[in-house]
Specification:
Number of strands of chain A: 0
Largest interface: A-B, 47 and 67 residues
Strand content of chain A: under 5%
Structural class of chain B: mainly alpha
Order of helices and strands of chain B: HHEEHHHHHHH
Number of domains of chain B: 1
Structural class of chain A: mainly alpha
Largest sheet of chain B: 2 strands, antiparallel
CATH topology of the largest domain in chain A: Helix Hairpins
Strand content of chain B: under 5%
Distance between the termini of chain B: 20 Å
Number of domains of chain A: 2
Strand order of the largest sheet of chain B: 1-2
CATH class of chain B: Mainly Alpha
Largest sheet of chain A: none
Shape of chain B: globular
CATH superfamily of chain B: Farnesyl Diphosphate Synthase
CATH architecture of chain B: Orthogonal Bundle
Number of helices of chain A: 10
Shape of chain A: extended
Oligomer: heterodimer
Radius of gyration of chain A: 23 Å
CATH topology of chain B: Farnesyl Diphosphate Synthase
Chain lengths: 208, 294
């Protein structure tokens, strides 16, 4: 295993509070909620495990007890995988949709899409639109995913699963690049942002 | 490529800025060494990012040397002299992509630009052959991507489908960065969204012009006469793509140059986006800051 302090991004002589703070930041960064339905959920999970293990190793080394794995007396910011997975999905009981969910979990999107495509437009429930959204989202077709989740959410606004996805996508779309209406100095690029090499930039500009 | 991946200079430390600049100049120098002076003209910020990413993921060391600038011999510059293949790789990508872009320009430009593109193409032909000989995979995927792009444009593809060829191209390039284990997938996904973002950013930037000239643009179907409203929509699309870039980037094992790459991903991308989308139409101070060249 790699250096646990390195994984947590703190120096070896950091105090407990600093370590806890670093740990919490990392948990937020790699939290499964952030990577829900993402093609990278598996990788994020791996990272999460690595971080938990590192935190645990450090704490064990310092205080001689585990906080994460036995977890009983740990503070409640810690991320617990088992309790999470228990209430993630609320299955509708439709056999086709359940099969599709299995396929999506196994990253088999082509087959999942085929199964969904066999359902006639008249029989398409909100769950159909939700699952289509998940497939598109995983493929990187974000606009399509957005359209599907809007439909699913409008058909059944009370469903927690759809709402979660809807909210996550809306948050992403709102994003950081908001238009504030006023221009600060730092908003001004000029034609080339960083005059890396002004002369080269000037020449290039003439050619473009 | 189009030069949309830039640093946010204001947020960067001076030492990081100097390092970034030395990589930019180093890449220019490397291309001059490998392909001759004409190839230096293909230099772009995007390929600088590619070189940085390559260096970071492979933990390549770089030595800084002081030499005179080719473009301006009066100035002494810092050049990054890389031990590994990063600059060579990025240089080849730059030459190959620029050559292919010229081909694209010939197909869908008007008279004068077409002529310029033809001449430039002649100039770059030898360089392209050299680069393609060294990295046949890059040449192959670039050609493939251009074919797909032409097909997508001729059938008036929607936003997702139109962005896919560029997205896949960058995705494949990122997969070539020499990674091991599970971060290859993260790099592929990262590349996909970076490519998508670059393509859509370019599309949003050109929207007004494309409407005027009747050229294909994926955002055109959303245009209802109010350019500001359409731009706000473009911003949403780009925001979502940028959010996905960040998700994938967080999973990469970035080693050295982390502060520069972080700056590009977390600050540079939103800033460039804000500038391109709202800068032109901003009524904040009643001035149009940038007048578009026609």
């Amino acid at each position: 295993m790699n250096d646990p302090y390195g994984i947590l991004g703190v120096p070896g002589n950091a105090n407990d509070d600093e370590i806890k703070k670093a740990y919490r930041t990392l948990v937020k960064k790699y939290h499964p909620d952030r990577y829900q339905n993402s093609p990278l959920s598996k990788e994020a999970n791996e990272k999460m495990k690595e971080i938990n293990l590192a935190y645990d190793t450090v704490m064990k080394e310092r205080h001689g007890k585990t906080t994460y794995i036995n977890g009983k007396n740990s503070d409640n910011t810690q991320y617990d995988e088992k309790s999470r997975n228990a209430n993630t999905y609320n299955y509708s009981g439709n056999a086709v949709y359940e099969r599709v969910r299995m396929l999506i979990k196994g990253f088999n999107f082509t087959e999942a899409e085929q199964l969904l495509g066999d359902i006639l437009p008249t029989g398409r429930t909100s769950e159909w639109y939700y699952l289509m959204c998940v497939i598109s989202y995983n493929r990187g077709w974000l606009e399509e995913a957005n359209n599907y989740i809007e439909t699913a959410y409008s058909m059944d606004p009370s469903n927690a699963e759809y709402y979660e996805m809807y909210r996550s996508i809306k948050n992403q779309r709102e994003g950081t690049a908001k238009h504030t209406g006023e221009n600060s100095i730092s908003d001004c690029f000029g034609d080339c942002c960083c005059d890396c090499c002004e002369d080269m930039c000037n020449i290039l500009r003439r050619f473009r | 490529m189009f030069g949309y991946l830039q640093i946010d200079k204001d947020e960067l430390k001076v030492k990081d800025y100097r390092l970034y600049k030395s990589v930019y100049c180093g890449l220019c120098r490397q291309m001059g060494k490998d392909y001759g002076i004409a190839a230096r003209l293909t230099l772009s910020y995007d390929c600088t990012v590619l070189a940085l990413l390559y260096m970071s993921l492979n933990s390549e060391k770089c030595r800084v040397i002081h030499k005179r600038c080719v473009v301006n011999p009066l100035k002494k510059c810092e050049f990054c002299n890389c031990e590994g293949k990063a600059l060579e790789f990025a240089g080849a990508v730059s030459v190959i992509m620029s050559y292919n872009k010229l081909e694209d320009d010939i197909n869908d430009s008007k008279a004068l630009k077409k002529l310029t593109a033809r001449i430039m193409k002649l100039v770059f032909k030898r360089n392209y052959k050299e680069a393609a000989g060294k990295y046949p995979e890059i040449a192959a995927i670039t050609e493939q991507m251009l074919k797909k792009q032409t097909a997508a444009e001729s059938e008036q593809a929607d936003i997702d489908r139109a962005a896919e060829p560029t997205a896949e191209l960058i995705s494949k390039l990122c997969a070539m960065l020499g990674l091991k284990g599970h971060s290859v997938h993260a790099a592929e996904v990262f590349g996909y969204y970076v490519g998508r973002w670059i393509y859509l950013m370019d599309a949003a930037d050109d929207l007004e012009k494309d409407i005027e000239f009747g050229v294909f643009n994926p955002f055109k179907s959303k245009y209802n006469g109010d350019i500001e409203e359409t731009m706000a929509y473009c911003n949403e699309v780009l925001n979502m793509t940028a959010a996905q870039i960040t998700l994938a980037y967080d999973l990469l094992d970035i080693g050295a140059y982390k502060s520069i790459l972080d700056n590009i991903i977390y600050d540079g991308i939103p800033k460039k986006q804000r500038y391109c989308i709202f800068g032109k139409y901003s009524r904040g101070n009643g001035k149009r800051r940038r007048v578009k060249k026609r």
